[in-house]
Specification:
about 675 residues, Rossmann fold, 8-stranded mixed beta sheet, 4-stranded antiparallel beta sheet, 38 strands, about 15% helix, globular
């Protein structure tokens, strides 16, 4: 039946309704021509997103049809060689009332009910499927446990309320979770549902955040493998595991110059595509190189992807390697000849993710741009694009999108300008300058977290530059401004801003500066060096770099590049935002999640203290504010918290740029 949630969205002034737009997170294509998507919806309380699987019409003619309906949700669709649909879900086992609560692997035949395939106490995620139906999956056990005794040991740990972790080295955290208490494992699930551990006895680090794939014949696993080295550093290479003998051999060894990641078997099992990543240094950032390695020996084929920053790749049925990534403030898909490494552009003018090849040579994917959320599309072999009907479309935007450029010392710096409807010389719009995170990122796709159209609906123009170190401009672009030099970044952003403020429909006397992560660091640094902005918003931003470099989960990389304060005193003196604390006069809104381990909450706490204690007027006149998100991490993921964040940020800017009422002591959202 037609989708009950298929109506297009257009009211960007309604932030609560915006948070409830269905979101498409993945597509999968099968050998029988079926296409399935995973689509998220917000529950009635706004407390979480739940995903369901939908069948899409590969011809793009009929509406999407919902396939799954459990209250626990289903995601990660994967169509297998026999035509059945694998997915993961926390739904209970109808044959075992005691089971449930963790993500299990389920199989949905083309006709009939879904059946449980396999479950472990820590949950499962599928990494690969062989032609015979064998499944490679990731799970974990408590440190020191086996698959057989893990459930009992977890039960005893919960009963004792024991939460200790014994660390023997770095790293100890990753984004929003602790490391060291569990041992990640790779398991093989047989067609009859039996589970065997391929990595029994492995330590807690080797498979942490691993990327793995299963050969088409089911005999070999290729996986990343991480080991500790001196100085608190780690190195990640690629190993092969024989699924019969469990013997492990090194395919690609990491060293002090390079690591490897994202191994993917070719469809004939003869080659593995990998990413070679150079180790970042104080003078050079890390660069990604795409290589195709023959498993029978011989030199790898190295692929020239031009300015593309690689984000993913998959093998087509005819043996071509399809590569997607960022390119020139947009994106592209390249088709690579694996024998020569020659690449041609299959699709561009959009960011493409979740690549899913079909036997007839077409490619299904999700495509987005700054003005369009991720939509399922079919790319014909000649590149012709057809959008497939699915929930979550957006209709009229509250403004227009323009590509803008400027020249800074001979470098062409680009970005996007979102202009509100109605902006004119007689009624010019206030302007927001947004600085993206990374710094190896790009304003090239739709963002649910930082959606400029919510601000545009309030009458703001939003300028989003792709500055030095942005992705999609080749290795030279990634390294321009390294090692994270804020003066270079701000010089480019300010030049583009000043150019665009010459437009009569923009009001240069009312400007705001906003950014998150690296952008938050930039915003905090800029706030101590200029008073040209009317308001500043920093989310998940670093403040005291000597502190942050040692407490972040990425301490090894940060300290390798920047060293200690006595090793690079000029960098810390000139570039740590806290050095300018006494010069901050612009009203600042700090927002930060307590569970952020990439930029720990201590950065926000210290910045807040410096701003509050440094205010020399009556406390009730202090203009700075702090929105603390106690349950969030580096991102704001809970829908209700996302609404509060957006409402607060816009109200803060309204107050200081448009004469709006101050935000009350108790948030009204």
């Amino acid at each position: 039946m037609p989708s009950p949630i298929s109506a297009s969205f257009s009211d960007f002034a309604d932030i609560d309704a915006f948070t409830r737009i269905p979101r498409i997170s993945a597509v999968a294509a099968g050998p029988d021509g079926r296409v399935v998507a995973s689509i998220d919806e917000v529950d009635e309380h706004g407390s979480q997103r739940r995903s369901a699987l939908w069948a899409l019409d590969p011809e793009g003619l009929t509406p999407a049809r919902r396939l799954t309906f459990s209250t626990d949700g289903e995601d990660a669709p994967r169509l297998t060689p026999d035509g059945s649909l694998l997915f993961t879900s926390r739904r209970p086992d109808p044959d075992d009332d005691s089971a449930g609560g963790t993500a299990a692997v389920w199989r949905l035949p083309e006709h009939g009910e879904a059946a449980l395939v396999a479950r472990t106490p820590a949950g499962l995620s599928v990494s690969g499927v062989a032609k015979d139906g064998s499944i490679l999956a990731k799970t974990s056990v408590l440190a020191g446990s086996t698959l057989e005794d893990d459930a009992d040991r977890r039960k005893a740990r919960r009963a004792a309320k024991r939460s200790t972790i014994w660390h023997t080295g770095m790293p100890i955290r990753r984004w929003d979770h602790e490391l060291g208490d569990v041992s990640p494992r790779l398991v093989l699930i047989s067609p009859d549902g039996g589970i065997s551990d391929l990595t029994d006895g492995v330590d807690t680090l080797a498979l942490s955040d691993a990327s793995a794939d299963l050969s088409p014949d089911g005999r070999t696993v290729a996986t990343t493998w991480t080991e500790r080295v001196e100085g608190g550093q780690t190195r990640t290479g690629v190993v092969l595991i024989d699924t019969d003998s469990r013997e492990r051999s090194t395919l690609l060894a990491a060293d002090e110059h390079q690591e490897y990641g994202s191994p993917v078997f070719s469809r004939d099992g003869a080659h593995v595509a990998v990413t070679r990543i150079t180790i970042s240094t104080p003078t050079d950032t890390g660069y990604d190189f795409l290589e195709i390695h023959p498993l029978t020996g011989g030199e790898p084929v190295r692929v020239d992807v031009g300015d593309l920053t690689i984000r993913g790749y998959v093998w087509s049925y005819d043996g071509t390697l399809l590569v997607t990534g960022d390119l020139h403030s947009s994106g592209a898909v390249l088709a690579v000849d694996p024998s020569t490494g020659e690449a041609r552009t299959l699709a561009d003018a959009g960011v493409f993710t979740s690549l899913a090849p079909a036997p007839d040579g077409s490619l299904f994917a999700l495509r987005s741009d700054v003005a369009t959320p991720a939509r399922p599309v079919r790319l014909a072999p000649d590149g012709e694009r057809t959008e497939l009907p699915a929930p979550g479309s957006v209709d009229a935007l509250p403004g227009t999108l323009e590509r803008v450029w400027t020249d800074v010392d001979g470098v062409r710096v680009g970005g996007w300008l979102c202009l509100p409807d109605g902006a004119s010389q007689t009624d010019p719009a206030p302007v927001m300058l947004w600085i993206h995170g990374g710094p190896h990122g790009s304003f090239n796709a739709w963002s649910w977290r930082w959606c400029p159209w919510l601000a545009v609906a309030r009458g703001y123009a939003v300028l989003m530059p792709d500055f030095a170190m942005s992705s999609g401009y080749g290795h030279a672009g990634l390294n321009r401004g390294w090692p994270r030099l804020p003066d270079v970044v701000y010089g480019e952003c300010e030049a583009l801003l000043d150019q665009e403020l010459e437009r009569p429909e923009l009001d240069g006397s009312r400007t705001a500066l906003l950014g998150a992560s690296f952008g938050g660091f930039m915003v905090s640094w800029i706030a101590g060096r200029t008073d040209r902005f009317s308001a500043v918003v920093t989310h998940a931003g670093s403040w005291a770099m000597g502190q942050q470099h040692r407490t972040t989960d990425a301490a090894a990389k940060k300290m390798r590049v920047h060293g200690r304060e006595d090793q690079q005193p000029e960098w810390y003196r000139d570039n740590s935002p806290h050095q300018g604390a006494s010069r901050v006069v612009t009203p600042v809104l700090i927002t930060h999640g307590n569970r952020d381990y990439r930029v720990p909450i201590s950065e926000a706490l210290r910045m807040w203290w410096d701003l509050v204690s440094g205010w020399d007027g009556p406390p009730e006149t202090m203009p700075h504010r702090f929105l603390q998100l106690t349950g969030e991490n580096h991102w704001v993921l809970t829908p209700s918290n996302g609404r509060v964040w957006n409402e607060t940020v816009l109200a803060f800017c309204d107050q200081h740029l448009r004469g709006g009422d101050p935000i009350p002591e108790i948030l009204p959202w």
